[in-house]
Amino acid sequence: MSNNNQQRIYVPQMSRRDSLKWLGALAATTAVPGLVACSDAVPVKQTTGTITGHWPELKLTPISAAGYGTDPNLIMPPATPWPRTLTTAQLDTVAVLCDWIIPSEGSNPSATQVKVPDVIDEWVSAPYDGQQRDRETIFHLLAWLDDEAKLHGAKSFIALTDEKQQSILDAIATRDDNIQGAYTRPADAFSRYRALVLAGYFSSPQGRKDIGFKGNVAIGGDYPGPSEEARAHINKVIDDLGLSEYAYPDY
Amino acid sequence: MDDFDYHAVVVGSGAGGAMAAYELTRQGIKVLLLEAGRDYDPKTETPMFKTNHEAPLLGSSNKDKNFGFYDATVDGGWQVPDEPYTTAEGSEFMWWRARMLGGRTNHWGRYSLRFSHHDFKGKSRDGLGADWPFEYDDIAPWYDKTEKLVGVCGANTDHEDMPHSAPGVLQEPPKPRVTELLVAAAAGKEGIRAVPMHRAVLTKSQDIRQKCFYATPCGHGCSIGAAFQTTTSLIPLAKQTGNLKVITDAMVRTVDTDSDGQVTGLTYVDKNTGKDIKLLSKVVILAASSCESARILLNSKTDVHPAGLANSSGQVGRNLMDSTGAGIGAYIPALRNRPRYNEDGHTANHLFIPWWGHDAQAKGELDFPRGYHFEIGSGFREPGSWVAGDFQGYGLSVKEEARAAYGSYISFALRGEMLPNDDCYMEIDDEVTDKWGIPVAKFHWKFSEHEINQVKHGLETAKKIFANMGADVGDLPAPEDAILKGGQIIHEVGATRMGEDPADSVTNQWGQTWDCPNLFVMDAGTFASNPHKNCTLTILTLAMRNADWLAGQIKQGAL
Question: Nearest CA to B242 among B38, B3, B11?
């Protein structure tokens, strides 16, 4: 296993507690047919507006695993509530995309350093409707990226140079009125993917710190309320908006 | 139960049932309490301090856990496994249930607003709906007792829509967040006040419960008992008397009657064995929730009670009301990159906007008869499966946007009073039964123009308040589209309403059914109207007052 890991771009989270469950999940995955649809992706030519683009046509087998049910253990949540389904190749592409979206920054880690690809894998492998829609979206995005790479003469997206990867992402990462028609579908998919990566990163312990979340700590006395700085700031906001005469009186 | 000589059986362990059991046992009366769901202990089962990161799918909601992974609700939500309900063609209605000791009190919002003199006599004022069979002054002392026992934080503010609590009753409210201060100023410009919310959260410890430590959303439940739920307060306190026994997994099938039509006890399904168990009881108190209690009554029909038990008026299942609901929110540019601090507080509104329009309604200036309030959504919440911001591109600029936008959104939740109407009711589905063979509830629903006009007014008012904050909410949706579905606010009440006349009500003011003196309803089914102020505090208060009256009857030998 360790030799394999050295060759992989992304190594799934394997804490000692998780490792047995992970192996169990791998075993369970092999029992679920039709999950590796992406490798069969065939680029489909289509026309959107005046510009010809492509969008893969994947037929994904719906996830049939059970959910965690209506009475799960909330104190010890299931670490792997259902089998994970991303292939190694998909997981590697997921990881590369994660770190384009959230690279490391000073002391703040990158998305892969806080194991966001595991979040994505758990998400797209979940048996619920919302996640199944995202599974469709993300599997198609991953296949589209590889198809696009093939048009650039590479075997896959992650085989491209950083510059080439960036040029593809630049075409789909800004979803505005100027986007070229060929890129609207991958851009919509990328937008959804980015939202999930942001959620995975900022909900991590390091991400919570990065965004400045200061809650979830027990306070012994009264709730202290806003800091001096926060109160001064809001007073200025209220003043700037011309609302000072309506400021809240304390009761 | 051979060894436990109970006088009354209470059906349901939520707000009404647990309070009835508390008050009766406190007065020395032995009570058997039945709960359709499983036993539940918040001390050992509440996910305190647990983060979204540790939960499957970052804690987000789905069909198994409708309010997110950590929501306290067990075996419930918009659907309960094996216990369906139906809706009539053309009707949409959502029915939230829980199957656990303590019922919905384990996850409720804890908003605890008194109804006022306006609320109990709406019909006398505008001719619509029904008056309650008592005055505010009759129930005010019971609100005081209930607030004191439950532990409600808040403040007396001379607001026309918020009656004062007696001195020393309310606990100190937490300080407002800066977002709430901004809303208060922006609403103030429209002549609308924001005041401290009243919540069933302890800000100082009492009896077997500890004060709030200002972490962990109350909807997860509260292992220290600070956020009120019957499983950390009324039920264990009642057990301390030695007068309470609880049976869980007990799903009531029927209330049983004799050949004269008088109540002799009830039959429940033991969910563990699937077997029916018959209990005899001198008094039966239904507190299974408005629609579940009505369902039991309608399913208890006999030759003597052909339309269902306690239904000589034909009103069981009728007069069903929810609160109106609508949401509106916006990005507030002035809050971008605002200074960070711990905004958890007691994890819900510290300030809110009560109904301000009584004068305008009295003058005939509004095209809807009943009021609403705004709850304020804001704050530096723990990041979960969604991060706010207007994201484009990738890399550090995306992170910068997430940090800048964090805590810069504010939303209002409108909660308003709806009036009863002939299109909103429940009955028994004559084709569908649940896993236990019990015929299920079937809902009919249609809002009237009163509710639509009210929501329109709310959206337009909110838009002005947001504009005062420098925010643009854009074009408003049509109120018919904005109003949330019937049942969706989880304030469904009225299906066994109380009144002064047996011809148009199911119970008297004590929750005693007109048809059967030893049969009571002590949940929100008895509400004669549904003021916008969230029903639980009044369920608790009525249950305390009416259980006290019942205790008097029992002591006199009348029941």
Answer: B3
